[in-house]
Structures are given as structure tokens and as C-alpha cells.
Design goal:
The structure holds 2 protein chains of 2 kinds. Chain A is an all-alpha fold. Helix content of chain A is about 80%, strand content about 0%. Chain B contains 8 helices and no strands. The chains are: A mainly alpha, B mainly alpha.
Chain lengths: ~300, ~120
């Protein structure tokens, strides 16, 4: 029996969106690639644009930044549809943020926010304020970032989003931002809330980030056993799901935590794993053994 | 190499980066462009106000092509020696009461040496 291509397209897209929210980015990309082929076969330009946007979102999440960015500016220039403007602008903002081009990222994020005014979708508005919060956090404008996250949470509540996506991410970001402001107990409480939401939503990426953040937080308040436990959980998820950024952060955290616990063998093990990512920098391990960099780094800064 | 237990404060990393940059006649703009951050952010980093990723931190190390001995150069030739650091570390492990006792004992010893004329000349 021949399957209706439009129905097939819809199924692939719906499943792809769920996979993105669960942190299964590679499978999501695969779904959207198949949906794109269907849209091309149907010669449906509007569907093709939507699929390119979806594909870009999944690629961004997977860390394929350059690929994710391709074609977005052209779409943005041609479209007048607020939803397309929102998605392309926010994806461009995310891509630029990941490249450390924060001023440009902020510009596109605000463009996305303006497009949001014409769309009655609280989840999108909350996502947009979360993105602006992330950019401010990367710039180390922490008070501004906290204000954006809190506003995003207020919008989520107003929109009746409950504990659905993206509330888990927003809480996790807010919690981490408070850690950077050295408000450790408050930060930990919010990250634990985020973890519960992420576990309920099956959002693997967010779960991994929560464990990573908690590891960092407990290290800062010298609760090393807890710090190590959470770091090991984050590491396991990062290894299974190939979240390279979390993986590197965990090698650093576990190296540092074990060093502070006096277990130099384990510390060496993790610093050695981190060193493998930077073969051109043989001093890295000694540097980390010698300096405490915990208060000058932001684990969520992409570059 | 210095022991792993010798951990410095973060602000010193920022000020050390500033000092290394100046040693190499690099402007903030030069270094910022080489490590891919904005000049204003590098300035804030040197002042301990801007937080960077591990990637950026490692890129800075790479730009300076330095080794740990070089990074420590000032401290090794300066007043702070390993033994001083170890004493300070052990001091911080003590409770407040014990720390006060140590300070009292130091004051006693200083006064005694002063009286006997056996102490080091102060600057």
C-alpha cells in the first residue's frame, strides 16, 4: 500500500521534533533529512522551508554549527512569515553564539523576539528570552541573564506550559547562572528542579547538563563526594550521547574534584583524557594541576 | 614542578595573562583577535570579571606557547616559596581558635627576636 507522502512527512517531522526535545539529535537529523527529501519530491516550497528550519535546529543542537547556519540568511531575506522569521533568526542567533560572535547573536535574537510579538506562542517567546539570557550569560552579564531567564519562566507560567519543554532548559540555565554569581545553594535548588523536569520529559541533553552543573556546584562548596557522583553521571550520559562539550567539561571537573579529594591517580586519568583533545598543548595537564581556574570559567561558553 | 596542592586564585590567572601579554608586546586587541574574543571581554577577563570557556583558556595557553615554569616565573623568583605556600595551606586547615594561637605565637616570637636583636631587618 502506498503511503501518503504528506502524512509521511508530518509523521517524520513530529517524531523529529520529539527527538530534538529528548536530546537524540542524530536521529532527529535523520528524520528531518528524510522529510526534506519528501518535501522536495512534493515540490512544496513552504514545507521545504519549514524542514530546512527544523534541520537547522537539530544540527545546532548536535553541534554541527556551520551546517546549521547554511541557507538561513537567504530564507530570512525572502520570507515575510513571522514563524519562519522567528525560527531562522533564533537559529542564526544560536549559531553565532556558538561561534562566540555574541554581539551579532544578540542582534538576531532580538529580531526573533520582534517576530514573536506577532505569534501567539508562549513556548516560543520563552525560548527566545532563554536564548537572550544565554547570550548575556556568555558575555558574563549575569544580572541581565538572570532577568531574561526569570522573564522566560514567567511567560512559561502565563502560557500554562507547566513542566513541558523548554521549562527544563530555562530552569537549568537560571540555576547555572546563579552558580556563576556564587549563589550556590539557590542555584543548586533550581538545577535540582530542572533535573526533575528534564527526567520527566526524557530530555537527555538537559539531564546531562544538570548533572554537570551540580558537579560544578558541589565542587565549589567543597562537597566533593557529591560533586564526583554527579560528574560521573554527566560523563556517562555525555559518552553515550556524544555530547562533546559536556564530555570535555566532565573530564575537567572530575580531574579537578579528584585532585581536591587527594586522589591524584584518578585526577591524572581524567586530565589525561582532556589532554587527548588538545595534543598541541602539552602543558594543559600541568596547568590545571597547578591553577584553580574554576572561578574564571563558564562551562556553557561555547568557544 | 610545583605540587598539585599549590592552587592559585583565579584573579591571579587574569593578571598573569596580562603580564605575559605585555612581556610579548601584544596589545589587548592583538591577543583578543588571536583567541577569538572581543577586546573588551579580554580586558574584563584580565580583571577577573569575564568568564571564559575551557577552549578559550587553552587557546590563550597555546598563543603564549608557555610552560608551567614560565607561568610561575614571578613566584619562583619572588618572595613566595614552596615552603611559604605550604605553611599557608596548613594554616588554613586549622580552626579559627588554632589560627589565633599561631598568630599569637608568631607575635610572641617576633617580639622576642626584636628584644634580642636576632630577627631579620624589616623593609
Amino acid at each position: 500500500m502506498e503511503v501518503d507522502p504528506l502524512l509521511n512527512y508530518s509523521d517524520l517531522t513530529a517524531e523529529g521534533n520529539i527527538l530534538v526535545r529528548r536530546g537524540d539529535f542524530r536521529r532527529a537529523i535523520d528524520n528531518f533529512e528524510r522529510a526534506k527529501r519528501l518535501a522536495e519530491e512534493m515540490q512544496d516550497h513552504a514545507l521545504l522551508i519549514k524542514t530546512l528550519c527544523n534541520l537547522s535546529t537539530a544540527r545546532l543542537a548536535a553541534g554541527d554549527i556551520r551546517e546549521a547556519e547554511k541557507g538561513l540568511r537567504e530564507i530570512l531575506l525572502k520570507t515575510r512569515d513571522p514563524q519562519t522569521i522567528f525560527v531562522t533568526s533564533s537559529n542564526l542567533a544560536s549559531a553565532l553564539r556558538r561561534q562566540g560572535r555574541l554581539d551579532r547573536a544578540l542582534l538576531y535574537a532580538k529580531r526573533a523576539l520582534r517576530a514573536c510579538d506577532q505569534i501567539d506562542n508562549y513556548a516560543w517567546k520563552a525560548t527566545c528570552h532563554n536564548l537572550i539570557g544565554n547570550i548575556y550569560m556568555n558575555m558574563t552579564y549575569l544580572d541581565d541573564a538572570v532577568a531574561e531567564y526569570r522573564f522566560a519562566l514567567a511567560l512559561s507560567e502565563k502560557g500554562g506550559l507547566g513542566t513541558s519543554y523548554p521549562v527544563d532548559y530555562i530552569k537549568e540555565n537560571l540555576g547555572y547562572c546563579l552558580l556563576l554569581k556564587k549563589r550556590y545553594r539557590q542555584g543548586i535548588a533550581i538545577i535540582l528542579e530542572a533535573l526533575q523536569v528534564a527526567l520527566k520529559n526524557g530530555n537527555t541533553r538537559c539531564i546531562g547538563e544538570c548533572y554537570q552543573d551540580l558537579s560544578f556546584a558541589y565542587m565549589q562548596i567543597k562537597e566533593y563526594v557529591r560533586a564526583r557522583e554527579h560528574g560521573e553521571k554527566a560523563l556517562q550520559i555525555a559518552s553515550e550521547q556524544e555530547y562533546k562539550d559536556i564530555l570535555k567539561n566532565c573530564y575537567y571537573l572530575l580531574g579537578e574534584i579528584n585532585l581536591l579529594m587527594g586522589d591524584e591517580t584518578k585526577s591524572d586519568f581524567y586530565f589525561d583524557r582532556l589532554q587527548e583533545f588538545y595534543p598541541h598543548l602539552p602543558v594543559l595537564k600541568d596547568f590545571l594541576r597547578t591553577f584553580d581556574v574554576s572561578s574564571i570559567i563558564n562551562l556553557k561558553n561555547p568557544v | 614542578m610545583l605540587t598539585a596542592k599549590f592552587k592559585k586564585q583565579s584573579l591571579l590567572v587574569g593578571s598573569r595573562i596580562r603580564s605575559l601579554r605585555k612581556d610579548r608586546d601584544l596589545t589587548q586587541a592583538d591577543l583578543a583577535s588571536r583567541i577569538g574574543i572581543q577586546q573588551s571581554d579580554l580586558c574584563r577577563m584580565e580583571n577577573g570579571e569575564y568568564k571564559v570557556s575551557l577552549e578559550t583558556l587553552f587557546r590563550i595557553l597555546s598563543v603564549f606557547e608557555m610552560n608551567i615554569a614560565e607561568f610561575f616565573h614571578e613566584d619562583l623568583t619572588g618572595a613566595i616559596k614552596d615552603r611559604d605556600t605550604e605553611i599557608l595551606r596548613q594554616f588554613h586547615r586549622l580552626g579559627p581558635r588554632s589560627q589565633e594561637e599561631i598568630l599569637d605565637f608568631m607575635m610572641f616570637k617576633l617580639q622576642l627576636e626584636d628584644k634580642l636583636g636576632t630577627g631579620k631587618k624589616s623593609n
